[in-house]
# Entry
Amino acid sequence: MNITLEQAEKVILAAKQKSVAIDTKMNIAVVDAGANLVAFGRMDGAWLGSLDISIKKAKTARFFDMNTGVIGELSQPGQPLFNIEHSNNGLITFPGGVPIKNASGEIIGAIGVSGSSVENDHIVAEFGASSI
Amino acid sequence: MNITLEQAEKVILAAKQKSVAIDTKMNIAVVDAGANLVAFGRMDGAWLGSLDISIKKAKTARFFDMNTGVIGELSQPGQPLFNIEHSNNGLITFPGGVPIKNASGEIIGAIGVSGSSVENDHIVAEFGASSI
Amino acid sequence: MNITLEQAEKVILAAKQKSVAIDTKMNIAVVDAGANLVAFGRMDGAWLGSLDISIKKAKTARFFDMNTGVIGELSQPGQPLFNIEHSNNGLITFPGGVPIKNASGEIIGAIGVSGSSVENDHIVAEFGASSI
Amino acid sequence: MNITLEQAEKVILAAKQKSVAIDTKMNIAVVDAGANLVAFGRMDGAWLGSLDISIKKAKTARFFDMNTGVIGELSQPGQPLFNIEHSNNGLITFPGGVPIKNASGEIIGAIGVSGSSVENDHIVAEFGASSI
# Structure
């Protein structure tokens, strides 16, 4: 099962609306089940460096089928996955990446959001993912 | 002057409609004046390898402010820009990348389209760019 | 639809047997529908440089859902896809990459073979792909 | 002395059986004495992001002829090899990579396993390595 472009655009629209609601400017990326980009939107004035981060967050969330922030706890110094970020041409393991599931609970893709605090990034990603 | 996300989404919508009209499945990328991705959409079933190509076409068109196919003529063996594709982490110099101008004629970004013949890619890119 | 590991190992076994039959030593890679590696085998004494080539051939065949050699004809100087090899972190566009289809004709992955002449590479890839 | 493809496939088979026995889904990579991939298998449903990690674990184990987890202790902040992961196009230094020795105790390659907890990854890698 793979996310469709129509679904991905719905996710981005929801994420944009949430970003506006909490007064932030986000980069929003959606990847499919194969971790390949399906849709992307960068809000006017959003940080340029967050473009790549949002895509890497989406990929990371699908690579391991979990929220990126969970991996980030495990990749700290002394933790089991220290420096896992060096794999897969660069992971981003702080919050803002969330798997996207269909009605049956299957993972069909992931969203990555970057442009504000990691708390805000996660809120927007979660809101986008839950719009499906 | 920079393309806005709203404008970029309008470009992608127009390009999608044109793609459907000529029975193709496209990857469509829009970059801003800084050659950074603003919006992207991959139509369901479009070639996976065209994802990267559509982004590189959009960047190439803005890097040199001309249609990608024009550069492709100059990058042939024996021509002045032979193998220019090695620069900028990889250019794509066949048709499908077109600069986007505002009403005043200023270049505010570029569109890159990939997923069919280069003729079709260019037709869709041209249609998208002219929707602004 | 995605190729399974069991199917991919069957493809590699068939390809190995064909390689032995025509007295060659091959690198054999199988990717899934997302163009990600599923199984790989390098025969003893096979060219080391063909390792990466076999993986890139498999990816290229799935990226564009056609035999790699077909793309190679279009990427020659003066042809429509000149220097397409600069995309996707490097394509290989000479023969030896073949899509893998299931009984319904759906593409579920691809095989890439490298280690001999491109004619032999293609023969082995074709044989492997048709074993499913 | 170099691991043969037949030996590498035996290692992967053993690792797959152990993975099933402990109810995990693994990516399993085997490299030779030159740290180049010999054989690889990704079990159905295994994490996609573990593909690259399993190969990097196998390479890392052979690059330094020790279990990857040992290097990971030395690469922590304040330790002698801090951030060694930046070398060699990316190392993975947590458990799951194990050198493979022949009957004489010579290192002939290495196995890298990724797809579960690092403890499980190491158990499967150790089991695979000891199958020779």
About this structure: Chain C touches chain A through five residues (CB under 8 Å). Residues 1 and 53 of chain C are 25 Å apart (CA to CA).
